[in-house]
Structures are given as C-alpha cells and as structure tokens.
Amino acid sequence: MKDFYSKQLPQSTREGDLDSALNTLDEVSATIAKATEKTLTSLLLKASQKGDISDIKKLVKRGADINAEDENGHSPLYMLSQKGQLNAVQYLIENGLDLNRNHCALRSIVVASQNGHTNVTRYLLKIWSYVNLEKTNERTPLTAASQNGDVDSVRSLLRMGASVNEETNEGWTPLMSASRSGQICVVKHLVDNGAKFSLESNNERSPLWIACESGQVEVVDYFVNKGGDVNERNKRRWTPLMIASKNGHLSVVKYLLQKGAKIDAKTDNGKTPLYFASDGGHVDVVQCLLESGADVNSRREDGTSFQWTPLLVASQSGNFDVVRCLIDRSADVNAESSDGVILCKNNPKVSSKVPVQDFFLLEFNPQI
C-alpha cells in the first residue's frame, strides 16, 4: 500500500500522466476497500458468536458481508439462530441476507430447533418454505424439531408440507428421532399425521425398537398399544427385548415381558436377552429375566461361538455380581464350551480377572 503512494502515484503526477494517476488511485481505493470489508466481516462473525446486536448493526452499516462464513462454515445467521437471538436474525434478513446461499436458512432452522429456540424456528419457517428433501448434517428441520420435542415447530413444518416419513441420508425418520429422545407428545402428533412405526423390510430399526434401545418406556407403551409387535426382528434378528436387555433398561424389559416378549428368543448367532444382559453386567436385568423364567444355561449354537453360556460370558467380561446372580439361579459352573473353556480354568479365553476366579474356587468348588 505504501509503495503506491511513495512511488507510483508521485511518478505519474510528475509525468503529467493523469490516466495513470487515476488508475493508481483506483487500485489503492479498491485495495483499501477490500481490506476494510475483510476486517469488518471478520468482526461481524465475532459479534455474531457473541450475539451482540448493537455491534452487528454497526458493522453491517459499514459494509460487512452478512453472507460470509467462518472456517467452520458457520454464517452470522447460523450463529445467531444457535443462540436464539431473534432480533439479530430479523435484522440480518431485513438487510438482504441470502437465505438460499449454502443452505443458510435450512441449517439455521435445524440448529435453532436443536437448541430449543422455538421463536427463531417459527420466524425462519414463516419466511422460508423449502422444508423437504434438503438435508444438513444428516438432519432435516422436521427431524431436528422432533428430536428436541418442539411440537409447535413440528406442527408448522407439517402444515408447510414437510413429509412426515421423510428419511435422512442415514435412513432416520422424524418419528425415530422423537422416539429415541422420548418426546412422547411429538411421537403422538407424528403418528396422528401418518408417521409409520412398523418395522420396514429395508430398515435396521423401527421406532419401537429405538424406543426400547434408549429406554423410553412411555414411548414403548404407546407403540405397543398402537399395535406394535414386541417380538419384531430387525435384519440381525434382534428383538426389542434383546436391545433393552443389552442396554440395561430394566423398566422396558419388565414391560416387554408383561406384553408377551419371548424371553429365550435367539439372534442368528445364538444370543438371548439373558446373554446380552450378562455380557453387559446389568445384574438387575439378569435377575428380572431369571425370575421370569429365562434359561440360565442357554448356549450359543451358531457354529462359531463355541456354545458359550451366560455364565461364561459374564466371567469373561468380569461382571462379578452377574456371575454370583447366575450361580444363585443354578447356572452350571462346570459347563464347558466346545473349545474347552470352563469357568474357573486359568484359560486365556476367559477373563483374567482373578477376583472372579478366586470367588468360585473358594465358594463353589467347581471341578477343575
């Protein structure tokens, strides 16, 4: 910049070359303007991160680029929507913000809904009607609103034409998202508006299965009363009881058993609900399953798992309380797998946790 003044401009002036002098001035002005805009825009992004509407207005009036993005791809609108700064959001839009640039509006609706800023979500929905098909970060506005329990935004999106059964790139529907987070009011509203909750042939998980996976017993009850199958199986042949047992959701396990879930159902590789619970160390679920009649000595019989029992896998995982519980319910401490593993043998295929082995050597005197 300094060179323009000290060299080119004086030289052009001395030589009487007006065109050259004017061109030099234009270059200087353009360079200054570009540098100024860059600085102002950088300051605008920082002000947006803070949610400072006063500074935002000053910077926009001086020419800061309201459509700019930071190194993470976040625009001022996105940042302000994330913080729930409705007045600042309105100001940017009123001053010419491009809502369709890089899915700006879509991404802002999603982040506002995720963070529970219903007022911002509603406002953006009113001025932007493109609510279907486009996705951001594997979410749609309806999916985000459903997961967050934002019933008002869900209603607005559906009224504007959002597809109640639309899937993200990963195959998730709004109902799945609401089911996982236990948003029962949203779940009911989506189902009332045609959301599918049965297990489709191409899906890995149904909303019922997902509710069991995340321990949302109220949602599980709703689906079952709507006709959901407590013994449905996904591609891996897992049932809702299996995933609830694996994740230790006792209330869901009890509910499913009361509704007729098959207690000794097996996956394709021979795992039962009791096997999952034993492996996961969920002693309360193990007790519940045993009291309900689960086969304590059920073996895996898929041809590759060496016919392990719940007791063997609990020992391998070092789940001392589960091991004690299984023994108390007559688990066979001398059961041997097809590859020769016995519970208390010092075998590398069984957990090396000495306290578990010592416990059985002292109290149960297995044949070793």
UniProtKB/TrEMBL annotation:
It comes from the Eukaryota. Gene3D superfamilies: Ankyrin repeat-containing domain. ANK repeats lie at residues 39-71, 72-104, 137-169, 170-202, 203-235, 236-268, 269-301, 306-338. InterPro entries: Ankyrin_rpt, Ankyrin_rpt-contain_sf. It holds the Pfam family Ank. Keywords: ANK repeat, Repeat. PANTHER family: ANKYRIN REPEAT AND PROTEIN KINASE DOMAIN-CONTAINING PROTEIN, ANKYRIN REPEAT-CONTAINING PROTEIN-RELATED. This is ANK_REP_REGION domain-containing protein. It comes from Enterobius vermicularis.
